[in-house]
């Protein structure tokens, strides 16, 4: 059991569980989580979103959702977006969007476990977890208890962001969570007048960082005023872009690759790989 004595919760009817994090605050984890989930849902998948940022929940605002949640005896019923994505968040437990959830670490970690195991997720192709910033209790609990298929990391081209995402990637590695890839967010912008793309923080650091950690570089998402407008309207799920399509394609490729690596370890040797049994001695 990687990472200690805690038991991983059973996966139930959820096929693939992916955490999205960065270590660093404000780089776009929640935005990227919601965008990837929405793109996967548009491709015909059943998708859930678990807001693991208990003290700083963002998904309800990005997706225009409100509580309270109900329970009809089969676990907590998640909220649903217009497109059918299922969402749970601590935001649904408080009345006002400005009321803080002031809880100590142990309560926060218990709620995350309940959000995974005590919610009526039904059958899901993908469950995405929006991780809080930092590398303390919450990521540790998630890594130890949630049966993650892997983690996607979000960074910006700034050196500080790169430094902190390394901490998060090291933590995931130490707890044997597959690194599914790195997304570089907000490194570029498009001039509204001439349409030319320019770099806000100098050269991209994502590809080199991904290579250093032997994980795929999933691509860049530019700063896009349309994206923040849709986030403000609570309709980030309707945002589309060619960059998002490419990042999602690469993530799916990375998942397949990560799975095939696990299968290579588990699959029995093919006949040609099996050692040749010693030939029977000739009959007298
Ligand atoms: N590509 C983008 N284009 C425009 N705005 C963006 C983009 N990515 C993120 N933002 C904006 O940047 C802000 C921070 O994004 P977000 O909340 O997703 O970051 P976060 O890493 O989840 O933050 P926290 O650490 O607080 O959870 C938000 O206002 C979001 O709308
Ligand atoms: Mg966030």
Instruction: Using the 3D structure, state the CATH architecture.
Output: 3-Layer(aba) Sandwich
Helix content: 25-40%
- In the CATH scheme, the class would be Alpha Beta
Each distinct ligand? adenosine-5'-triphosphate, magnesium ion
Provide the gyration radius in Å.
21 Å
Domain unit count = 1
What is the number of helices? 8
Poorly predicted sequence stretches spanning 5 or more consecutive residues: none
- Supply the helix-strand structural class: alpha/beta
Shape: globular
- Specify the biggest β-sheet: 9 strands, mixed
Quick structural summary:
With 284 residues, the protein is an alpha/beta fold. The longest helix is centred in the last third of the chain and has 25 residues, at 242-266.
Give the helices and strands, then pairings.
Blueprint: E1 14-21, H1 29-42, E2 47-51, H2 59-63, E3 79-80, E4 86-88, H3 105-117, E5 124-130, H4 137-145, E6 150-155, H5 159-174, E7 179-190, E8 197-199, H6 206-212, E9 217-223, H7 225-232, H8 242-266
Parallel strand pairs: 1-5, 1-6, 2-4, 2-5, 6-7, 7-9
Antiparallel strand pairs: 3-4, 7-8
Helix pairs in contact: 1-8, 3-4
